[in-house]
Design a protein that fits this description.
Elements (H helix, E strand, L loop, with lengths): L1 E5 L11 H8 L8 E5 H8 L2 E2 L6 H8 L2 E2 L11 E4 L2 E4 L12 E2 L5 H16 L5 E9 L6 E9 L4 E3 L15 E3 H13 L8 E5 L13 H5 L11 H4 L5 E2 L1 H11 L6
Parallel strand pairs: 2-8
Antiparallel strand pairs: 1-12, 2-12, 3-7, 4-5, 4-13, 5-6, 8-9, 10-11
Amino acid sequence: MTVTPVHTRRVSAGELSLNDLLDESIDQLEAGTIVAITSKVVALCEGRVADPEKIDKAELIESEADRYLPRSSSRYNVSLTIKRGILIPSSGIDESNTGGVLVLWPEDPQRSAELAWEHLAARFDVTGFGVLITDSTTAPLRMGVCGVPIAHAGFRAVNDFIGTEDLFGRPLAMTQSNVAAGIAAAAVTVMGEAAEQTPIATVSNLPFVEFQDRLPTPSELESLTITPEDDLYAPLLQPAAWRVGHRSTTASRQTSSGTSSS
């Protein structure tokens, strides 16, 4: 696997569209490549920002979360949240490299990934490539942050080995490889977390990736997440005093009225 960071202009909120940023930053795109893009630069291109002087950050975190724990429950005064099936601090809202604003996640990261994939496919007349939107989060009992995928298009995110045999002929009963997560971790490590100004990376030499010349189906996307109740870590997640966030409530209302919540 080869990860190549792409230097871009310093992006301010609403300054240009994501398609424009991709056009001026990527000169060529070959089959077998995944274009990784940070959620922050996607959100900046989409104008998904808030003025910290005009909004209460704690309320904003709650409004963006599916589930959240109050900041008072953390010794670091950070809200732990679940958003779109990902355990992440503060609903992914960030203040670093933002120019003084609060940057949220894209409104619909999956749709953003799909639109970028369609745009790049048309621009370069290429098939057999992917787009991956990433963010950084922490992992329990581990120091530092690591890249995670929040949306993808053009490739299979998880390789399923259930039913195949290991080296000794033992059938695998549970093994699935989260390809998107591994690529996100590598891409974010190379793109950096500070002043690198490389919010895009191209990832190539990926023999383990199954590319798809189509967008992921709803069932494929649904299969990527696990509810806290069904998770391996349910004994840790379930006892927590989770509160239902505003995003989850809004999504439930939209779904019940026949409107997609994605």
